[in-house]
Structures are given as structure tokens and as C-alpha cells.
Amino acid sequence: MNSHTDIQLSGPFSARDSSGQARDIKGIRIFDEGYGMIDVYVDFVCSFADDPLHEDQALIRQILSRLRALGYRGPDFGLADTSLQDDRLIVLQAPEPFNDFAASKGWRNLAEEFAGDDEELAPDSSLAALASAMEADALMRRLMMR
Fold it and tell me: What is the pLDDT of residue 127?
């Protein structure tokens, strides 16, 4: 974790996977800024290389319960791109309603901040620019995790 770009949403806790095994979680975090869609990083204490925990719905429900206990009110999350998953990390894709909760914790939506700059672009090119920025953002996050 990089304390300069991370917002810690939760500290350590334990959750059970669908087989009933306790999994120790170091914390839940997000990056301090992004372009509208937020990836939520769940860091684990131990490796789970042989278990596809990112597909374990019982475990993900408990992670969401933890976020709801911390104040998030909204729909469930989806799984982020499989290339972002790691042997000690689950990455979830938060729905748009999560943005308000994240903003209350200090997250900045760069898409809103630079919305005025996009007005100069044609509608099709502004969508392409946003998509490119989101891809670059995801790539930077992946590189920073390594």
C-alpha cells in the first residue's frame, strides 16, 4: 500500500469464505482520486494462490457487509478486471453510488474536476478521451501495486 495515494476504508478484520475458512484481511482501500469508477482493493494477510477467492460470493458479501457497517449505502459491487486480481488481493468494481461514500472519505472524482475541459472536445472524442484516461488510470494502479 502507498499511504500517499491510498484512502484506508477499513483496518484488519476476518471474514469466512464459502467453505467456512477464516480469511484474515489487512484492510480495504481505494486510491485517493480517479475518473468516476472506483476500484476497491481488499488486501489479505496470507496468499490464497490456489483458491479463486475473487469468485467467492460468500466472502465478497462479507466484505460488502464490512463496508456497509462503515457507512456505505448502495448496491453490491462487481468484480474488477481479472488481470487486477492477485494472490493476496481482491479488486472489486464499485458502482456509481459508492462515489458519494468515497468522497466523504476524501476521494476526488477527476472526471468532474476536468468536466469543463471536455466541453471543448466533440462529444465522441470526449468519450474516447475519458475511456483512454480510465485505461491509463487502471494501468497506473496495477503498476503501483507491484
Answer: 58
